[in-house]
Amino acid sequence: MSEADPSPRDAEWLAREQARLDALPLGPASESFGHVVHAADGIARIAGLPEVCMGELLQFANGAMGFALTLDTETVEAVVLDDLPDLGAGTRASGTGDVVRVPVGEALLGRVIDPLGRPLDGRPAPACHETWPIERPAPAIIERDLVSEPVETGVLVVDALFALGRGQRELVIGDRATGKTSLALDAIIAQKYSDMICIYVAVGQRASAVERAIEAVRAHGAPERCIFVVAPAAAAPGLQWIAPFAGFSIGEWFRARGQHALIVVDDLTKHAATHRELALLTREPPGREAYPGDVFYLHARLLERAGKLSAELGGGSLTAIPIAETDAGNLSAYIPTNLISITDGQIVLDSRLFAANQRPSVNVGLSVSRVGGKAQKPAMRQFSGRVRLEYAQFLELEMFTRFGGMSDTRVKGQLARGQAIRALLEQPRFTPLRAIDQIALLAALEDGAFDTLSTQDLRALRSKVGARIDAGAHDAITAIEEGRTLDDAQKSALIRAVGNG
Ligand SMILES: Nc1ncnc2c1ncn2[C@@H]1O[C@H](COP(=O)(O)OP(=O)(O)O)[C@@H](O)[C@H]1O
Ligand SMILES: [Mg+2]
Fold this sequence. Notes:
It is built from 15 helices and 19 strands. It is an alpha/beta fold and 501 residues long. The protein starts with 7 loop residues before the first helix and ends with a helix.
């Protein structure tokens, strides 16, 4: 075959290649990338990324993701989100032109994911059609509505004395191992029969503790309406840092559709410590307790995103239960005081009460709910105010009578009532009480039905109360469901149903 005379097959090949060449977009193409100068402790310093923006998502050549935290004149300091090997001096890094985002949508329900939406439960990646930035502005005042519907946590001491409303932010605070996580999980589990979407964000927790939390919800709650966003203690600090923000964006997606969501962040003390770690590594000037000056702003802008939307915007809500850990009950440390002042109330758990087997170990004197009372059911409000007052008086009286016997019958009556309240407020885990059960118990308490009952008898009675009311107090149930207060006939029907048997 001579060169001048190509065979038909070669001619065909030539024509095809020519067409391919013609279709190629030839011309100058630009790609911007930089190189890591130094990487350690979850921070990478990158040279050669002049166009990168604050907070921009970066991609490293080894597959790790990161985001720009501080922009210097010559270099960029980035938080690395994955703890992958081979990230060191010389690793190529490029900007993605986008901020950090998290997948949102219904596909996340029932899933365990990391803060970037990657699956941690061994199932395929959730099929979400949308991603939302993890940092989003809080709803403006005009877009909000008053908190007016209750979140029923099923925990009597919370629902009766420190009621939560949809859209509220209530801090759960206490020393380690005082039942903070358990209380928040009980609130999630009680949503089994409600319409709430629950999001549990684990920040800096031990993997085994997170596993136990997930197991508890799977065993007792409605896992198909829960989302677990997990950045355990072993995860890169950057991943822990973005976890609460990612969780809020996921919750906001449901709220924007007019749904109601509850987010638990366990816990913000660890989140603050991660923030401090990253700030110190990037040489931000340390302030009080070595936290950078913006740690208040960090949590304020996060928690400000909770809230109830106005009817024009669909009326959805996002309720937040952040958790904070104290040292030796010190509520006036830096992070606890910040969080107390940001939230709409706090439930203080007390290690002494916990040790005395008063569980949930809520310190009634130090706890407060600043907006939830307005969201209580009218029938609940009818009884709960009195209980709070009686219990406060009892706690004071108990202090005095400890020193000497008081024989006054009125005082004895008050003491008996107080002890009955204390016994009633004790509640094992995973035993949520419906609003109607709680109201019945409070009505019976006010009637004096529990003053002579032993703690064991009260415990036994409480486990049966639901069935008895369903059988014997239909009128009262209708009144409570329709949002009315109880008249005398309904009240005594309830009390009779509780005391029956
Ligand atoms: N209401 C309760 N009744 C009985 N035990 C409880 C109750 N709440 C918590 N506990 C127990 O107390 C322990 C510590 O609870 P946890 O929620 O992990 O505390 P924290 O989150 O404050 O460290 C757990 O073993 C838990 O089972
Ligand atoms: Mg805990």
